[in-house]
Specification:
single chain; 135 residues; alpha+beta; 47% strand
Length: 135
């Protein structure tokens, strides 16, 4: 009985320590059983924009981003779509998206602030944030 009690306390302590120290992103989650790639994979739509000075506005566009686990991404807006590739960079704290259109390649690297099953928050170099929800 005493051994079971001690093991229960040890398991709870381990979960607490892991939960409080495993967060890679500023806004969480603190702990997840799904991999970062699995949480990112899927179709996302813009929900909110936050300016560098903190002003928030709702996203009014109908565009979506679809991330596949194989590293491909498709951006769609108003019947037009762009294909490209994505990858995690800088210890999986940043997301790099490379798109090619009309022979030009554009690469953008954004800091991941939050990556949950139902929320994706990205921050551009200028400090503006884009908050996405599943489409």
């Amino acid at each position: 009985m005493k051994t079971i009690k001690l093991m229960s306390i040890a398991v709870l302590a381990t979960v607490f320590l892991l939960g409080s120290s495993c967060s890679k992103y500023e806004e969480g989650p603190a702990f997840s059983l799904r991999t970062k790639k699995a949480r990112l994979a899927g179709e996302w739509e813009a929900d909110k924009y936050v300016s560098p000075d903190g002003d928030e506005s709702n996203a009014d566009d109908d565009g979506t981003m679809e991330f596949d686990k194989d590293g491909t991404v498709t951006l769609s807006y108003d019947g037009f779509s762009l294909n490209g590739e994505w990858e995690f960079t800088k210890s999986k704290e940043y997301l790099e998206i490379e798109l090619e259109f009309f022979g030009q390649t554009d690469t953008e690297e954004m800091k991941i602030l939050r990556l949950k099953n139902d929320e994706l928050w990205l921050e551009s170099e200028d400090g503006s944030q884009m908050h996405y929800v599943p489409a």
